Amino acid sequence: MGNPADDKRKISIIIAEKQRIILHSLISLIGSMGDFEIIGTAGGGSELLHLLESIKPDVVLLDVEKPGLTMIQVTRVIDEKMPWVKVVSLSKHNHPFFIKEMLKHGAKGFLSKNCTVEELHEGIKRVYNGKTYFCSLCSKVILRDYAPDAEAGLIDYRSITAREIEIIGYLSEGHSTKEISDKLFVSNKTVERHKANLFKKMKLRNTAQMVKVAIENGLLIH
Could you give the CA distance from residue 59 to residue 38 in angstroms, rounded to a whole number? Predict the structure, then answer.
């Protein structure tokens, strides 16, 4: 049996959120739930890791992006250096590749920014109690990823390779084919072949569309 005093202790949380208006909304919402105590906030990955050197929360509610460290990079560092801290992802990125990478590096909770208040509350508590939690939307994404076949007419993002995602990242930063080939130590023809494969897989015609769709689907995460 657990200690009754432990049952009454509030779960301590640090919120890492890049958008101030969302951060303040989360502070107000989570603070009103009664089970949680917010002991710190951060606007980026480096700021969060610095904060964790002096504050030890039970749970980190995490949403950070470039510029700076990505969510996967931050989660990896927390898992390596502070494994007692439980990470809950609260993100617009719900691509299977993103979720799998976060799981690999120690994240235990996955909440979409379209999740319900009830899912937010339950997700934090379940992760704190040592379980893994997926909100309904993230669960559907994972289940769909393991389905035998992609739905007819939709893009099968499972077929996009890590190297192709890397190339999309360089394209999003404005690098030319020559610059990408130099960075990856491959020929121009190899880069162009990857781009052609991406256009085919994503059913698109130009780089601007490719980058836009990649961002919307959470592919640009490294």
Answer: 10
Note the pLDDT tens digit of each residue in 173-217. Answer: 888 999 999 988 999 999 999 999 998 888 888 888 888 777 766
The answer to whether 65 touches 57, Cβ cutoff 8 Å, is no
Question: φ and ψ at 84, to 5 degrees?
Answer: -75, -15
Place of tokens 């508590």: 125
What is this structure's pTM?
0.66
What domains are defined for the chain? Answer: 4-145 (3.40.50.2300), 157-216 (1.10.10.10)
Helix (H) or strand (E) holding 167: helix 162-172
- C-alpha closest to that of 36 among 45, 44, 28, 25: 28
For range 91-102, the mean pLDDT: 78
CA distance 130 to 62: 17
d(CA 111, CA 220): 18
